Every structure is written in C-alpha cells, then in structure tokens.
Amino acid sequence: MPVDPTAAAEMTAFRWVPPMAAGLVRDLRVRWALEEAGIAYRERLFDFQHLPADYLNEQPFNQVPAYRDEAVQLFETGAIVQYVGEQSEALLPREVQARHRAIGWTYAALNSVEPGIMNLAIIDLFYPGDQWAKLRRPGAEEFAQLKLQRVANWLGEKEWLEGRFTAGDLVMITVLRILRHTQLVAEHRNLAAYVARGEARPAFQRALADQLAAFERHQPEGVAA
Fold first, then answer.
1. Predicted local confidence at residue 221, as pLDDT
2. How crowded is residue 57: how many other Cβ atoms within 10 Å of its Cβ?
3. Distance CA 219, CA 115 (A)
4. Contact, 34 vs 9, CB < 8 A?
5. Residue 176 CA from chain centroid, whole number
6. Going by DSSP bridges, is the β-strand pair 41-46/9-14 parallel, antiparallel, or unpaired?
C-alpha cells in the first residue's frame, strides 16, 4: 500500500540519513507493519540533525518514529507494531496463546537481542579507530554471537519463530538486519535464510522502497548515495 498524504495514520521519519543507516532506521518496522496490515499512512519527515523542539511532546527521547491516528498517539516501535498488529490478524493471531507468544517475541527482539547487537554495531560504525573500542569489541562480538545462537537454536528448521509469520518475526528480522555490515548472521544458515524470507515479503519490499525513496528525494548535494 503506497504512502498516502491523506491517510488518517501518520508516522514520523527522517528525510535523509547517511548511507550506512539507510534501510535500518527504525521507522522501517512501522512501515512494514502497516504494509502487512494493509493500513495506509502518511509521513512527517524531519532533518535527523535538527528535530523541532516541540517534537519532544510526541517522542520523549527525540527519536523516530512516532505514530498517531484518530485513536492514539504512540512512540517506541514495539508499542506501535503491537498496536498495528491488534488491527490485523496478519501480524497477531486471534488465538490467545499464539497472539501473546507473538507479542513475547517482539519484546525478546527488543530487550534480549537488540541491545547486544546495537552495542557491537555502535562500536563498528561509529568508533572503529578508537582504542577503547578495539579493546571492547571482542567481548561485544561474543555477547552478540550468544544472542544470535539463542535465536538460531529456537528457530531450528522452522520458517518462522512460532510457526507462521507474526509481529514477532517482523521485529526480530529488523533487529538481525542491524548486523548487515558483518558476517555474524550469515554464519548461522537458518538465521540467514530467515532474514532473507522476511526481506522477500512484498510488504517488506514496499516498506523499504518507501523509506529509501524519501532519502533519495532529500539527498544533500555532493553526498554519494
């Protein structure tokens, strides 16, 4: 479903980010969820270096995305994805156990997996030449690998974490993609295939295309894509 400037649902995002972040900014999770649910949305785009002061009234941590529609105003991708999922069985099954297992995996992705992965990514992408980062990196990689192994062990030969695609898979896959600058996910055959299955979904492809289209429209002159 294309971005619709007249849609009731609205999400915030950045106009442009450096290439290393393109395709990873967290609004992608919300775009993907909305696409899976078939809900049209409009964008409100900001300069990532100069968010307006009153934006803190919507997002207390000055991050994207924030979300609002005729019923709610939300921040934090986990909460937004869960809210969208509550409107579509495509993301959250109706059966109680399956529904809450899917929600549980969204929490696991954000609380048990993402912190270790982000710790490593920050070292690699922002401080690769710093002495402290060189000393810290082996431990950070070991911790990230432990989290990947736990997910790989659970996934096994299944297509999805709980038998069918849910919001839990959507969030987990976006977390695993943060390590695209490494080979750590690729070292686990089943995780690499799992991420590829998520990225092959038409809703993901549309969400990614819309995020990248905004960056392309607002790319600064003289900056390579």
1. 79
2. 10
3. 30
4. yes
5. 9
6. parallel
pLDDT for position 181: 96
Dist CA 9 CA 20 (whole Å): 28
Domain ranges of the chain: 9-90+203-217, 96-201
Residues in the chain: 225
Contact 128, 135 (CB under 8 A): no
DSSP per-residue string spanning 29-98 = HHHHHHHHHT--EEEEEE-TT---GGGGGT-TTS-S-EEE-SS-EEESHHHHHHHHHTT-TTTS-SSHHH
CATH class for the domain made up of 96-201: mainly alpha
**Which residue's structure tokens are 């695993």?**
176
Q: Is 90 a residue whose pLDDT tops 90? A: yes
Round the average pLDDT of the chain to a whole number and report it: 96
Residue 100 has pLDDT above 90, yes or no: yes
In percent, the amount of the chain with pLDDT more than 70 equals: 98
How far apart CA 65 and CA 58 sit, in angstroms, is 10
Separation between Cα atoms, residue 167 and residue 165, nearest integer Å: 7
Domain 9-90+203-217 listed as CATH 3.40.30.10: yes
